[in-house]
Design a protein that fits this description.
With about 100 residues, the protein is α+β, with helices and mostly antiparallel strands. It has four helices and six strands; from the N terminus they run αββαββαββα. Strands 1-2-3-4 form a four-stranded antiparallel β-sheet. A two-stranded antiparallel sheet has the order 5-6.
Length: about 100
């Protein structure tokens, strides 16, 4: 996955959220973002420690960890809801770059 390669090898977009909380945004393709949203990791920085708070889109990553994901029209899906979103966006021209 491109986000993993970016996390390991490239500089990331670090956004200050509040106090010592930060959000690291990852690159994802247009279709994935429209179905699931931006891929990001929420972290807390304290002294010499980095604590992972959350990885988003949470439902996608948790489902992908527990089950083998199906794909529909080249996009990994967790439930029938994503099939509906894909079909809807295709009909509305929402996947045009």
């Amino acid at each position: 996955m491109r986000a993993y390669k970016q996390f390991i090898f490239e500089t990331n977009d670090l956004v200050h959220v509040k106090d010592n909380e930060y959000r690291i945004n990852f690159i994802s393709d247009n279709k994935f973002q429209k179905i699931y949203g931006q891929i990001y990791m929420s972290v807390t920085l304290e002294k010499d420690e980095i604590t992972l708070n959350r990885l988003e889109p949470h439902d996608f990553f948790i489902a992908g960890h527990n089950i083998e994901l199906e794909s529909y029209k080249g996009i990994p899906i967790v439930s029938q809801k994503e099939k509906f979103k894909i079909d809807f966006l295709n009909k509305m021209g929402g996947f045009d770059e």
